[in-house]
Amino acid sequence: MKIKLKYPIYIVSKGRWDSRLTSKSLESMGVPYFIVVEEQEYKQYCSVINKDKVLVLDRKYQDEYDTFDNLGNTKSKGPGAARNFAWEHSIDQGYKRHWVMDDNIHTFFRFNNNRFTPVADGTILRCMEDFVDRYINVVIAGPNYFMFVSRKTIMPPFVVNTRIYSCNLIQNDIHYRWRGRYNEDTDLSLRILKDGLCTIQFNAFLQLKSPTQTVQGGCTGEFYKDEGTLPKSKILVHMHPDVTRLVWKFSRWHHTVDYSKFKKNKLIKRKDINIDQLPKVDNYGMKFKIIKKKVQDK
Fold it and tell me: What pLDDT shows up at residue 58?
C-alpha cells in the first residue's frame, strides 16, 4: 500500500465469515478496513479477522431502520441498518466521506487500453477519492461491475448520474440515509439524483462481485433463496414509479430504471482546483507487472 487512502472503508456482512470475499480481497491488497457484523456473529468473525477490525452493529440502527414497508420485524431488514451505522461511525471519526462495501467482492481491476488488470494495492481507491473531491456536488461514487464493461467496446473512463452499487464512496454531510428492505443502493442513488446532485460510476476501475444468489449468507440467505428477486424489484417500483418498471429477463424478475432525465445534473468543479494545471496523465505510480504463477503437478 504505497498510497494512503483518505477515507475509511466499511464492509457490511452477515453469515459470511467463512467466505468473507471482500475482506480477503482488501487483506491481499494491504488495505485497512472495518467490518460491521451483528452481535450474535461477533465471535465467528473474530476467529478469522483481527478483532480490531470487527465492529458490532448497534441494535438501535435495526430498530429505527425505515424498511419502506409494513412487514416490521417479520423478516430480515437487510443490510441498510449496518450501512447507516457505518455512516455515523465515520462521521464520529471526523471524516468527510466513507466507503461502504458489500461482502462478496472477489477483487478489483484497472481497466486501461481495454485490458482488465487486477490490482495489487488500493491505489485505484485513492484515485477515485481524489477525482470525486474535485467537485462540490458529487455525493456518491464507485467502480462499475466487471461484468458490465466490455473488452471489445470503447468505454468512457466514467459515467455521470447513474446508480452506484456494492462499493460506494459517500459524502457524509448529506441528509440522506439508507432505507428500504431491498434495493437500498438504487433508492439512495435515485433520491440523490432527483435532488439535482451527481453520482460518478467509474469504468476505469472495476469490482468483480459475485452475482446475486451465488454466495451463501447475506441477502441470499435472508431473502433470495426462498423468495427470489421479485419482492426487491417490486419495492423499488413502489419507491420510484416515475422512473422504474418491472421486467422479466435472464429467467428472473428485474427492475429497470430510466436515468435519462438526470442528464441535466451537471458536475460543478471546486473553484480552488485548476484542473488544467493537473498532469494530463497521472498513474499514481501504478505499473503493469506480469506475475508468473507456479504450476503444481497433480
Answer: 98
Cell of 44: 465467528
Q: Output the DSSP codes for 139-159.
A: EEEEEEEGGGS-TTS---SEE
Tell me if 146 sits within 8 A of 116, measured CB to CB: yes
pLDDT tens, position by position, 82-112: 999 999 999 999 999 999 999 999 999 999 9
Contacts of 291 (CB under 8 A, 6+ apart): none
How many CB atoms lie under 10 A from the CB of residue 207? 24
Q: Which domains, from first to last, does the chain contain?
A: 9-277 (3.90.550.10)
Give me the amino acid identity at 185: D
Mapping DSSP to helix (H, G, I), strand (E, B) and coil, where does residue 190 land? helix
**For residue 210, pLDDT beyond 90:** no
Between 62 and 212, residue with greater pLDDT: 62
Quote the crossing angle between the two packed helices 184-194 and 230-239, to the nearest 10°.
20
User: What was the pLDDT predicted at 1?
Assistant: 52
CA dihedral 132, 36, 239, 249 (to 10 degrees): 90
Among left, alpha and beta (phi > 0; psi -120 to 50; other), residue 261 is alpha
